[in-house]
């Protein structure tokens, strides 16, 4: 039996009831203020490999799918089984052939090194217990010239900026109201 608050791998995640309540509130938010325009500024282009890290119920996958196009790929990654099920359902119902749901184990996405042109992590950074490990995983999966769009979630921007700086892996190249646009720092070697 899986302990409450953990997935099958024993990793921390919100309980199922909390996920369902969050999904319901996100549906209301998306109905009032559709997320459509948010991704247009992050830099997703046709044919790109994109990672929606912490995808939740999939608010952004349809837009990312359309921006990446038929020759692009969108990996919708989450640690919660219900998130992966919700995105899988959207993929079937909306015909999002280029979207691949992925169940992460902790921060480990299971994606190959340098697989992504662009990673976005929106509406979730406040729930990350170990920002350094999380940002290291995102750095591992993004290409050397890739992009990270990192939203604050429900925490102050200063805390997000500090976590990015302290990771030593990213440089902030632009700030918008919704996210920090970051590039990987070059590593020695």
Q: What does this protein structure show overall?
A:
- It is a single chain.
- By secondary structure, this protein is α/β, with parallel strands linked by helices.
- The protein has one domain: Rossmann fold, CATH 3.40.50.150.
- The chain is 32% helix and 22% strand.
- It has a 7-stranded mixed beta sheet, with helices on both faces.
Keywords:
transferase, Class I SAM-dependent methyltransferase, single chain, Rossmann fold, 189 residues, Methyltransf_11, SAM-binding_MTase, methyltransferase activity, disordered N terminus, 7-stranded mixed sheet, alpha/beta, 22% strand
Structural class comes to alpha/beta
CATH class: Alpha Beta
CATH topology: Rossmann fold
Mean pLDDT: 86
> Biggest β-sheet: count, sense, barrel?
7 strands, mixed
- Cα(first) to Cα(last) distance is 45 Å
Task: Please report which band the strand proportion falls in: under 5%, 5-15%, 15-25%, 25-35%, 35-45% or over 45%.
Answer: 15-25%
What's the CATH H-level superfamily name? Vaccinia Virus protein VP39
What form results from the Cα inertia axes? globular
Q: Give the uncertain stretches in residue-range form.
A: 1-11
Counting DSSP H or I runs of 4 or more residues, the number of helices is 5
What would you report as the Rg, rounded to the nearest angstrom?
A: 16 Å
Major sheet strand order: 3-2-1-4-5-7-6
> What percent of residues adopt helix (DSSP H or I)?
25-40%
- Taken together, the total number of domains comes to 1
Give the strand tally. Answer: 7
SSE topology string: HEHEHEEHEHEE
Organism: Methanoculleus caldifontis
Keywords: Methyltransferase, Transferase
Protein name: Class I SAM-dependent methyltransferase
Domain Methyltransferase type: 51-149
């Amino acid at each position: 039996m899986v302990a409450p608050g953990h997935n099958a791998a024993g990793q921390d995640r919100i309980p199922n009831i909390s996920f369902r309540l969050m999904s319901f509130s996100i549906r209301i938010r998306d109905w009032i203020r559709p997320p459509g325009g948010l991704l247009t500024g992050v830099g997703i282009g046709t044919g790109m490999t994109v990672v929606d890290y912490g995808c939740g119920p999939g608010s952004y996958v349809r837009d990312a799918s359309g921006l990446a196009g038929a020759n692009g790929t969108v990996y919708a990654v989450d640690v919660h089984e219900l998130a992966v099920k919700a995105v899988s359902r959207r993929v079937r119902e909306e015909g999002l052939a280029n979207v691949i749901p992925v169940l992460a184990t902790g921060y480990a996405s299971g994606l190959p090194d340098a697989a992504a042109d662009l990673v976005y992590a929106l509406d979730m950074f406040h729930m990350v217990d170990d920002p350094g490990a999380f940002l290291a995983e995102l750095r591992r999966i993004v290409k050397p010239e890739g992009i990270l769009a990192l939203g604050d979630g429900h925490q102050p921007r200063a805390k997000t900026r500090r976590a990015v700086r302290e990771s030593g892996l990213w440089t902030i190249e632009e700030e918008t109201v919704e996210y920090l646009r970051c590039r990987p720092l070059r590593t020695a070697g």
